[in-house]
Each structure stands twice: as C-alpha cells, then as structure tokens.
Give the backbone structure.
Amino acid sequence: MKRYCLTLDLKNDPQLIEEYKEHHRDVWPEVIQSIKASGIQSMEIYHIETRLFMIIEASDDFSFEIKAQMDASNDKVQEWETLMDTYQQRLPFAKAGEKWVLMERVFEV
C-alpha cells in the first residue's frame, strides 16, 4: 500500500469555507465511486484556517496519471471539480493545472 499527502488552500472567505465543508459531509456517490475505482482505499481531508491536508492510502498499482485520465472522462467528477473550484485556491508554487500539491515526507519514526 502507498500513502500520499497533499495540500491545497481554500479561498479566505468563512462562508465559502463552511460551504466547502458542508459539501464534504455529503460527497456525491459518483465521486466516491470514482475514488475507489482508481485504487484509492482511504482518503481523508483535514482543515485548518484556509489550509487543506489530504491523506490518501492506495493500492500499490495506483497512479495519479491514470486517476486524472479516469476523472477527465467522467462528467460527474468534472462537475464536482468545477464546483470545488468555487472554494479552492491554488498554492502559489503549484504547477499550471495543478490543484492538490504532493508533499514530501521529511520525517518518520
């Protein structure tokens, strides 16, 4: 199993942040199905202020590239991503087209 940690910011607007959190209390079934079909076994998102932190545990054959291809061909996932863009703000160092930025592990016990 592989573990990935990613980060992203939300727009600095308390109402938008609450709306974002509300959407994640009831994620669309098609989005959940897409996550699981890609080989992601567990996904958690944590929040503080405007910062989001995501932990993904996935099968050994999981690939972000394949997940992106699957998402691009799924109209409901694209609709969800468009909705989430209402709330999300790219990190200043993110690459073009990159939302969630993969973090580097610097310590482990």
In short: The domain at 2-102 is CATH 3.30.70.100 (Alpha-Beta Plaits). The first strand starts at residue 2 and ends at 10. DSSP finds four helices and five strands in the chain.
